[in-house]
Amino acid sequence: MNGLFMSKSGLLFIILTILLPISSRAYAEIIETNPQRQNSFPERIRQQQEERDQQTQEQVQKTWLQLYLQNPQQQQLRLQQQEFSRQRQEMRRQQEFRQQQQEMRLQQQEFSQQQQLRLQQQELRRQQEFNRQQEFGRQQQLRIQQQELRRQKENL
């Protein structure tokens, strides 16, 4: 039963790996012959990525065919190794993602601290301005009182 499943899935995989590159090549030809598309930097990057993807797919085809034609124990071992590699890659991606999130949190913290510092500085300037105005008012009041005292002395 398991051998039959493996042979059917292998056959399906071979058919898919043959058909998918054909359709992606046809799509790539449509893109290349379309004069409306500009060959911008992002487009060139995308095309290069498609070429790399196609090369990777062809390499996967070759590798899979080699594995499929080898003995089942080696095939199972290689599949386990590939799964292990895939899991290790996924763990690396997740670790990088967590690291990016941590960096973003630190940047947000720093931004919040800077905002808080700006608010404190604004409040300090307001308080200083208020104190200056109060002091100016006191000095004005003191001058008025001194003038009033001088008039009273002169009137005596």
Question: How are the secondary structure elements laid out?
Answer:
Layout: H1 2-33, H2 41-69, H3 72-155
Helix pairs in contact: 1-2
Give an overview in words.
- This protein is mainly alpha-helical.
- The chain has a domain at 1-23 and 62-69.
- It is built from three helices and no strands.
- α1 (2-33) runs antiparallel to α2 (41-69).
- The protein starts with a helix and ends with a helix.
Q: How much is the radius of gyration in Å?
A: 39 Å
Q: What is the 3D shape?
A: rod-shaped
Binned, the helix content reads: over 70%
Unreliable sequence segments: none
Order of helices and strands: HHH
Largest sheet: number of strands, sense, barrel closure: none
For the secondary structure, the number of strands is: 0
Question: What is the overall number of helices?
Answer: 3
SS-based structural class?
Answer: mainly alpha
| Mean pLDDT level | 81
Strand content: under 5%
- The N- to C-terminal Cα distance equals 127 Å
Q: Short description, anyone?
A:
The protein has 156 residues and is mostly helical. Helix content is 93%, strand content 0%.
Name some characteristics of this structure:
mainly alpha, 3 helices, 156 residues
